[in-house]
Write a structure and sequence with these properties.
- The protein is mostly helical.
- Helix content is about 35%, strand content about 10%.
- The chain is built from 20 helices and 13 strands.
- A 3-stranded antiparallel beta sheet has the order 7-13-12, with no helix packed on it. Strands 1-3 form a two-stranded antiparallel sheet. A two-stranded antiparallel ribbon has the order 2-6.
- α7 runs antiparallel to α8 and α8 runs antiparallel to α9.
- The longest helix is centred in the N-terminal third of the chain and has 26 residues.
- It is globular.
- It holds the Pfam family SusD-like_3.
Length: about 600
């Protein structure tokens, strides 16, 4: 009890004021009970995990190119975002970490033990700064717990991206070398291989960003970072003993990773573990099924088109794909599709009764309703009741990091492909193209997403990354580092509707599900009717058909989304610029 009480005093006295670099003095309570025993070090480092916000990662892709939602993201809606409403310039977590690193020096604790926990602290400092650099670019590098007397540091300008990211990688190198736990049973704590996996993420991001964001003039350092990304990923692949979970077969294994209460330890490296007994739960169902709560986020058809056929060929090679009905387009595809959206024979429990669950048009605008994080029981659909753990780092990402880094370096071999992308596709039931590098460009993928990429290997790695990691919080970062911000302006398109007033059976269970109309027809019982008239009560209708009376569903074509180069970074909040004008605002804001 005394240890917990002293820790609370210490932690409370280690916070910044608000969102500036202004700080209060260090704690005057004795540090002995915390830093003189391993139990104290455990208690302190456990406080760092809150900064990951892991339970909310299931909704982190709400702003991405492949998601339509109930409103347009304010960040790219003209006139809706500015420095006055920006956020994220908060530094309290850094103060807490630096305080620990400075004071973890009590000789009563063996050096190797201290270095283990310092390694964990430096992992989290790297995490903190990686998020800051992604959001704001250049930021002040602070590696000590500031005191009120440190006026020069408190009011300094921003350090260069190169300097900060070199420091981030130095922190990760220390973490990789000194964290002693190689794996951990519950997958809720940072381990040595979590540090290597995270290093592969950081170096891939920074290496590709410097390659494609040419205005930074940092391209000469790209190859070194990509080499480090591949090397870090390879350590995990060769030493850690992880593998893709395949225990439920090609039809269920992929989704099981995201709905299992306990992290599937074969694949999950780090997870936000939920616990019903502790009332530590998430809102996965509430967010992904509610018509009022959350963003009503659902996939667009352009992205769904990128899922391969089960034989490994592009779906869009079929000349009929543009007018294919929903019930047909979901068949014979990469098995991850049926594990990511409602389709086919998907079912849910309703008060213990199994019911067919086609796309629900009181929720979806496009027809492609996600199920990746939602449990198949309506009990969980209201409030934060979900018991499924949320993966933060998993082995599939490591394989993708390795493949992409090597592909960007031009050194990915057939053997590398088979050991990374090939494994991911085999788990998804794909039978072709899993053992050798692709040789032919998919013109749909290139034209729709990456017109400047002429290497079929890079194109296919990017396809795989989008599909495998969808809804896990990577997509916006990927768009930024590939310099493809224009994708955020993609039309929010949905399934093909052949005609008005004709009810459709979306899951072929013999029950009609939805019909689209401009003048309300005689209703069929059990059918959801969606109006697609150009005007409703004199106002523009956001839900239309692309050809008027037929075609793809479209959503919010009447609300502009505009991407500008300034959107590759967020603005520093206006209040923090007033506090410290030396920071200088990001270009365009």
């Amino acid at each position: 009890m005394k240890l917990n009480y002293i820790f609370c005093l210490l932690f409370t006295s280690s916070l910044f004021f608000g969102c500036s670099l202004e700080e209060i003095p260090e704690a005057t309570t004795t540090k002995g009970p915390i830093f003189s025993s391993e139990s104290g070090l455990i208690l302190y480092t456990n406080s760092f995990y809150n900064m990951m916000n892991g339970k909310n990662l299931h909704r982190a892709d709400a702003m991405s190119d492949y998601i339509a939602r109930k409103d347009t993201p304010p960040f790219i809606t003209p006139g809706n975002f500015s420095a006055e409403v920006s956020s994220g310039w908060s530094w309290s977590d850094l103060r807490n970490i630096n305080y620990f690193i400075k004071n973890c020096n009590d000789p009563k604790v063996p050096l190797a033990v201290r270095n283990n926990y310092i390694g964990i602290a430096r992992f989290f400092r790297a995490w903190f700064y990686y998020e800051k650099v992604k959001r704001f670019g250049d930021v002040p590098w602070i590696n000590k717990p500031l005191d009120v007397s440190d006026t020069e540091l408190l009011n300094k300008g921003r350090d260069s991206r190169v300097m900060v990211m070199d420091s981030v990688i130095a922190d990760l190198n220390f973490a990789c070398a000194n964290i002693t736990a190689k794996t951990e049973g519950t997958r809720s704590l940072v381990t040595k291989y979590a540090a290597f996996a995270f290093k592969s993420r950081v170096c891939l991001y920074e290496g590709t960003l410097r390659k494609y964001q040419t205005t930074l003039n940092l391209g000469s350092s790209s190859a070194n970072l990509l080499t480090q990304a591949a090397a870090a990923a390879k350590v995990v692949m060769d030493e850690a003993g992880y593998k893709l979970y395949d225990g439920a077969g090609v039809d269920k294994s992929y989704r099981q990773v995201f709905i299992n209460p306990a992290p599937l330890a074969t694949e999950v490296i780090l997870s936000a573990v939920c616990d019903l007994a502790l009332n530590n739960l998430n809102d996965g169902n509430w967010y992904w099924t509610s018509g009022t709560y959350g963003d009503k986020a659902n996939f667009i058809r352009s992205f769904i088109n990128t899922y391969l056929n089960i034989d490994g060929t592009p779906f869009t090679n079929n000349p009929a794909y543009k007018t294919m009905l929903f019930k047909d387009e979901v068949k014979g595809r990469d098995k991850r599709l049926q594990q990511t959206i409602r389709s086919g024979d998907y079912k849910r429990l309703n008060n213990g009764v199994v019911e067919a669950a086609p796309p629900l048009f009181s929720y979806t605008f496009t027809g492609y309703q996600p199920i990746k994080w939602a449990l198949d029981d309506m009990y969980y659909d209201t409030r934060d009741l979900n018991i499924n753990s949320v993966s933060i780092i998993r082995y599939a990402e490591v394989l993708l990091n390795y493949a992409e880094a090597k592909a960007e370096l031009g050194s990915l071999t057939d053997a590398d492909w088979a050991a990374s992308i090939g494994l991911l596709r085999k788990r998804a039931g794909i039978t072709g193209g899993t053992s050798t590098l692709p040789k032919v460009i998919d013109t749909y993928l290139q034209t729709t997403y990456f017109p400047a990429i002429t290497d079929p290997v890079i194109l296919e790695v990017r396809r795989e990354r989008g599909i495998e990691l969808c809804l896990e919080g990577f997509r916006f970062d990927d768009i930024v580092r590939w310099r493809r911000g224009e994708l955020m302006q993609m039309e929010w398109n949905g399934m093909y509707v052949p005609s008005l007033d004709t009810p459709m059976d979306l899951n072929e269970d013999g029950k009609l599900d939805v019909a689209f109309y401009q003048k309300l027809p005689t209703k069929v019982s059990g059918v959801t009717y969606v109006e697609v008239s150009p005007l409703i009560s004199g106002k523009a209708n956001p839900q239309l058909l692309s050809n008027g009376s037929s075609g793809e569903l479209t959503w919010f074509n009447n609300i502009p989304r505009k991407w500008e180069n300034k959107h590759y970074l967020y603005p520093i909040p206006a209040g923090d610029l007033i506090t410290n004008p030396k920071l200088v605002q990001n270009p365009g804001w």
